[in-house]
Design brief:
The structure holds 2 protein chains of 2 kinds. Chain A contains 21 helices and 3 strands. Chain A is an all-alpha fold. In chain A, α10 packs across α11 and α14 crosses α17. Chain B has 12 helices and 2 strands. The chains are: A mainly alpha, B mainly alpha.
Chain lengths: ~425, ~290
């Protein structure tokens, strides 16, 4: 650990490596958000795999490991793969997922073939091209790192400059075309930026896992927000964080690949987001659902007593009628009694005056909702939001009057509704 | 039998079993799941090794099948919690694969299970790793495994032919007439996992994906009939692996890589020349209608 801090603080190369994986993470997070929303995440996967033959070609052509040339080779085959996928999907009945899978495996197979060819070359043994499969950030040196970092920075800047254009063409391409944006060119530009991101990332993350850098930060960010700007921002932070932390962890051991650790860091952030996000997280969603279930059970019990027309009912009788577990039944009942809607004595439940009021209110709301659903064209515009909002407290008398007036208004306006409803209610309405 | 014949036989068995199973993946639009499973199988192999401390093929098979089903299950879980499918697949397979790679480099460094082997396979060594069987004599282990998995595939597809067909083309109709769609889905995924892992050992992860998808996609461009597509896909799979083997021999390169490239080339040729869906015939047709 000490050694680690020392190398961060003093070793220039480590600092550069960290900075470049950080920038790479931010760039891939930012572009990944757009790719996710365009449903193009897995194209990144295919492009990453397809970069391998390009790297090998470039190496065979140059005979030495010039980082810049390798990147150009990777970008060339990556773009070729991206366009082959689109061509296959457009000209045949093969679906996009099959096309992606096909291109990915064939290009990667070609990469492996070329890799075995490279290994037979006299200079091939020390080529270190294997590092591209799983990523080895530590093997990056000096100018390579700077090139990578600068390219990542350029990607971030370009994307933020074209933010509005990308946003429009992602969500509503037709509208974008309408206001005169060159959508075709923007798509081409986006795919090219995506390819460049993948290409500069494979030295650090590896061809197989590069897809995760595009997907995982973006999908984690999606949990926290509904706004694209915030999502891109968070996704960039998540990407950068996982890039930096993953690189640090992998330097702890000797000869560990960087890629898997970067990906795992991102996955941990994803799992945390999935569980704990306040709005969509699994935990909060489950809690909300439980609460809602209780609310429904409460309404059910109150309405049951209200509709039976009697003031009292036996406890076990009510339980048999309600279709919920004993535990939940008792919990809901306790809550109702605490609120003062119900009163219990020797297994016999009595509904109080405020309980009846509440039940009346529930019945009204349900009735209006039902009507609204049955006749969406007539009543669709009817605003009953204010009742739902105030459900927590008992309605005041004047509010109830307002409700009844509204109901009678509806019946006057649409007389054909009246017959059904009045027969169902059976004249048991609570007198005001 | 000679060395070469065994390799050809292994390749053909891979092509046949993967080609048949792959058709279903293509028709159900689940090709990416094959890619995901072929990656996560690695984790299954590592876990099986760590638990059993041996390289016994049987444990490996079970481990890989479990990993495959786990992948399917997790993708389904994420998908049903509101994540779009491609992203769910991407998240699941990359993280499981990353765990697999890390576990290998931490625990299994000194055994024969290494990452390169998992990616590229060792089809060239298949003939030397033999198993003595009562009547047949010495047979390579991989051939025995691939042969039995192929039999299993054919048996299950034969038995559940109608169910597979219905759930592939019209899942809601299948559900309406009482076919357990989810169970069929998991049976198919189990089949894919087992096939993947049996092929994985000899040809590696890349070729498995290529063999699962390419023959089926090629056959899809040649016929409109379900049965014909299955048969054709198997035949094309065998063809791909034979061409690939001779190509690899000619250029002295990785056999499994060459097989994947051969599969790609065959697809490319069919894509251009197919009588009904080929690019050239489409172009000619267009010309004809214009005139």
């Amino acid at each position: 650990m000490n050694h680690l801090w020392q190398s961060i603080l003093t070793d220039g190369n480590t600092q550069w490596v960290l900075l470049s994986t950080l920038l790479l993470g931010i760039a891939s997070g930012v572009l990944g958000s757009f790719a996710l929303l365009r449903k193009q995440s897995l194209i990144g996967d295919a492009v990453a795999h397809a970069a391998l033959p390009g790297i090998c070609f470039a190496f065979m052509f140059m005979g030495e490991k010039n980082f810049f040339v390798l990147l150009i080779g990777a970008a060339a085959t990556g773009l070729l793969a991206a366009y082959t996928i689109q061509l296959i999907t457009n000209t045949t009945r093969i679906k996009e997922d099959t096309a992606i899978c096909l291109v990915l495996s064939v290009f990667f197979g070609l990469g492996i073939v070329l890799l075995t060819k490279v290994a037979q070359m006299p200079t091939g043994n020390q080529s270190g091209l294997d590092d591209f499969i799983f990523g080895q950030a530590a093997s990056l040196v000096g100018r390579d790192v700077q090139l990578m970092g600068l390219t990542a920075a350029a990607l971030i800047i370009i994307t933020s400059l074209l933010f509005k254009e990308f946003k429009v063409s992602t969500f509503d391409p037709q509208f974008a075309r309408g206001i005169g944006l060159p959508v075709g060119f923007l798509n081409f530009l986006f795919v090219s930026l995506l390819v460049i991101t993948v290409v500069i990332g494979i030295q650090a993350v590896g061809v197989i896992l590069m897809a995760a850098m595009l997907i995982t930060p973006a999908i984690s960010a999606r949990y926290w927000t509904d706004s694209l700007r915030t999502m891109v921002f968070i996704s960039g932070i998540v990407g950068g964080l996982s890039g930096a932390v993953g690189t640090l962890i992998s330097t702890l051991g000797k000869g560990l690949s960087t890629g898997p650790f970067i990906v795992l860091t991102a996955t941990v952030i994803f799992i945390v987001s999935m569980l704990f996000s306040p709005k969509r997280g699994l935990i909060s969603v489950t809690l909300k659902r439980l609460k809602n279930d209780d609310r429904l059970a409460m309404r059910f019990i109150l309405k049951k007593m209200y509709e039976s027309g009697k003031e009292t009912i036996r406890l076990d009788h009510l339980f048999q009628q309600s279709n919920i577990s004993k535990l939940k039944f008792n919990r809901v009942l306790k809550h109702l009694m605490k609120k003062g809607y119900l009163h219990q004595e020797d297994g016999i439940l009595t509904i109080t005056k405020s309980g009846l009021m509440k039940a009346e209110q529930f019945s009204f709301v349900d009735e209006i909702m039902e009507l609204k659903e049955m006749y969406p064209s007539e009543l669709g515009s009817l605003d009953i939001h204010w009742i739902e909002k105030e459900e927590k407290e008992t309605l005041s008398k004047e509010q109830l009057t307002k409700l009844q007036k509204k109901m009678s208004d509806i019946y006057i306006q649409y007389p054909f509704l009246n017959v059904k409803m009045s027969s169902r209610r059976g004249g048991q309405g609570y007198e005001l | 039998m000679s060395y070469e014949l065994w390799i050809l036989l292994t390749g053909s068995l891979v092509g046949l079993s993967c080609g048949i199973v792959g058709c279903f993946l293509i028709l159900r639009k689940m090709s990416m799941l094959a890619d995901a499973i072929s990656h996560t199988v690695l984790l299954g192999l590592v876990m099986a090794f760590i638990v059993s401390q041996s390289m016994n093929g049987f444990y490996m098979l079970i481990g890989a099948a479990v990993a495959g089903l786990l992948t399917t299950f997790m993708v389904q879980l994420l998908n049903s919690s509101g994540i779009q499918e491609d992203a769910a697949i991407g998240v699941v397979f990359t993280s499981l694969f990353a765990v697999g790679v890390i576990l290998i480099s931490l625990f299994a460094k000194n055994v024969h299970l290494d990452v390169e082997h998992a990616l590229m396979g060792e089809i060239a060594f298949v003939p030397w790793n033999t198993l003595s069987l009562p009547i047949l004599g010495d047979i390579p282990k991989s051939v025995v495994m691939l042969g039995s998995v192929l039999l299993l595939d054919i048996l299950i597809i034969f038995l559940l032919f109608k169910e597979f067909k219905l759930t592939s083309f019209d899942p809601s109709m299948a559900a309406a007439i009482g076919i357990p769609v989810l169970a069929v889905h998991y049976i198919l995924m189990g089949l894919v996992s087992v096939t993947t892992v049996s092929a994985f050992d000899s040809v590696g992860a890349i070729l498995v994906v290529a063999m699962l998808i390419a023959p089926g996609a090629t056959a899809y461009l040649l016929t409109d009939r379900y049965k014909v597509m299955l048969l054709l896909s198997g035949v094309i799979g065998v063809l791909d692996s034979i061409i690939g083997y001779y190509g690899a021999k000619m250029f002295d390169v990785s056999i499994s890589g060459a097989m994947a490239v051969a599969a790609g080339l065959v697809f490319f040729i069919v894509w251009m020349l197919s009588p009904k869906y080929g690019l050239i015939s489409r172009f000619l047709n267009q010309r004809l209608t214009e005139e």
